[in-house]
Structures are given as C-alpha cells and as structure tokens.
Design the sequence.
C-alpha cells in the first residue's frame, strides 16, 4: 500500500467528522484536552479555533469520533501554524497525520482488583497540579486501569498512580479516558496507562491472562486501534504513546 498524502488523510478525516463547521474533543500530547472548533479546509489543511493557551506549533492532537454506522475512529493532527484570533482563542492550521479505525475488542485482558492507590495530578482541568487523590482500584491490565474515587476527572487529565498489586509496588502514568458517576457520590474513572515499568507490566499481564474470561460492561468498553490509512505518525507522537501500551 502506498503512503497516503496529507490530502488523502484530510479527505479520510472529513469522512469521519460531522459536516463542517463542527466541534470535536481532542487530547493533547502536552496533557489534557479541549474542544476544537473545525471551521474550514484549505488544500491540505484544516482551519480550526481552540484555546490560545493550550496550543503551540508542532503540537500533536488526537480526536476520537464515533460514527453510528461505521464504528469508532481516531484522527491525529499536528498543528502547522498558530495565529492570534482573540484574547481567548487561536486560529490554527492543522495537518491530518493519521486516521485509525477502532476495533470493538479489548486491547488486553483485564483482572479485577480491589487495592488502595494514591494518585498525584500531573495535569487536570479542574484540580491544581500535585493534588493528591485517594483511590480504590477496580481493575487493571497491561494497557489500562479503572478506579473509584471522590473526584470527577476529565478526558485527557494526567495522573501519576502508585499502588501495590500482588505484594509488588507499582507506579504508572495514566491518561483519563472517561469518568462516570458511581454510588455514594463517587466516580468510576477509566484510564489508559501510558508509562509503565516493564516488570510491573509483565506481572500484571500474567495475572490478567490467568484470570477468568469476561468482565464488566465498563471493562468491555476498551478498544484497539487499527490503522485504515498509515500516517507518518502512526507509531510516534500522541497516538503512538497511547496505543503502544
């Protein structure tokens, strides 16, 4: 298969997004996420508006889009240019660098656990950096984790989590994917693990492989990404860091 051009990738992305103008939520490689207001296209570029303080040239962004007929997709961008638009917003020119279809299957087997954990906020829309959170793990795999806590978190928030599993101290960096209300005023939060010690990954993967098959509805929401058109950043940048785990 020949490598698609930026124009090819842009056309694929436009087939995934709602008709322009449209708003999509994106994750940033610098941490967190925000609403990207897609306005127009010009040749190989998308024109969009977003918070001025959260973008820079060469920043990589990742949008996850669900099409009711075709399933879920991931579209990765790189910021080509940033222009002043207002005190709050910037006009950005974006290059599409990858379009991926998300298969409806788990990326890795997950095991149920009930362990206390502590997290330190690295980036959060609503909590200051270095805020400490007390958590209770619900399940974990080599690629993701779910926990129960008192704080509602936003997609893109970054946490450094510490716990003990099977008597072993485990530390990992996690990016929030979703946070849903749970009983007694708590929240169940699902995360992608984006930084993991190799020995901890191997031990947890072995535990999950030996656990009974199945899982909760929340566990079955995990997906893997299958490229439908290889982009130059398919194994690097934000999408690569998320998916390689």
Sequence:
């Amino acid at each position: 298969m020949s490598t698609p051009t930026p124009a090819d990738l842009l056309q694929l992305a436009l087939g995934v997004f709602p008709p322009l103008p449209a708003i999509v939520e994106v994750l940033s490689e610098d941490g967190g996420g925000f609403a990207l207001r897609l306005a127009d296209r010009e040749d190989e570029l998308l024109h969009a508006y977003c918070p001025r303080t959260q973008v820079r040239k060469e920043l990589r962004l990742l949008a996850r889009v669900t099409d009711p007929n075709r399933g879920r997709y991931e579209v990765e961008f790189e910021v080509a240019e940033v222009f002043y638009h207002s005190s709050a917003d910037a006009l950005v020119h974006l290059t599409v660098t990858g379009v991926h279809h998300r298969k409806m299957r788990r990326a890795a087997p997950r095991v149920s656990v009930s362990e206390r954990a502590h997290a330190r906020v690295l980036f959060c829309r609503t909590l200051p950096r270095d805020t400490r959170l007390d958590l209770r793990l619900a399940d974990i795999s080599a690629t993701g984790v779910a926990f129960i806590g008192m704080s509602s978190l936003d997609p893109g928030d970054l946490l450094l989590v510490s716990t003990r599993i099977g008597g072993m101290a485990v530390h990992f960096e996690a990016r929030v994917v979703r946070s849903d209300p749970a009983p007694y005023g708590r929240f169940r939060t699902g995360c992608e693990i984006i930084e993991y010690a190799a020995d901890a990954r191997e031990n947890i993967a072995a535990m999950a492989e030996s656990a009974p098959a199945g899982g909760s509805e929340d566990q079955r929401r995990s997906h893997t990404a299958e490229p439908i058109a290889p982009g130059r950043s398919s194994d690097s940048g934000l999408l690569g860091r998320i998916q390689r785990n």
